[in-house]
Amino acid sequence: MTHGVDLQLSGHTHGGQLWPGPLLAGLANPTVAGLERYGDTKLYVSRGAGVWGPPVRVGAPSDITVVELASPQA
């Protein structure tokens, strides 16, 4: 499968935030969090750093991602 894209950065899903959210998020999205490969494309999805509403997350830890991009010549 050729997408013509090397890397896609996406976010954020909250990882579902509260049960059964992680289960439902996984059903709606093939990648809820982390790095996956789809053909020639790498996809990274973040859960995000915070919450909306009450400060709770169960089974879906927050994350902050730092991405360092470098050219192949570097």
Automatic annotation (TrEMBL):
SUPFAM superfamilies: Metallo-dependent phosphatases. InterPro entries: Metallo-depent_PP-like, Metallophosphoesterase_sf. Keywords: Hydrolase, Metal-binding. PANTHER family: PHOSPHODIESTERASE YAEI, TRANSMEMBRANE PROTEIN WITH METALLOPHOSPHOESTERASE DOMAIN-RELATED. This is Metallophosphoesterase. It comes from Actinoplanes sichuanensis.
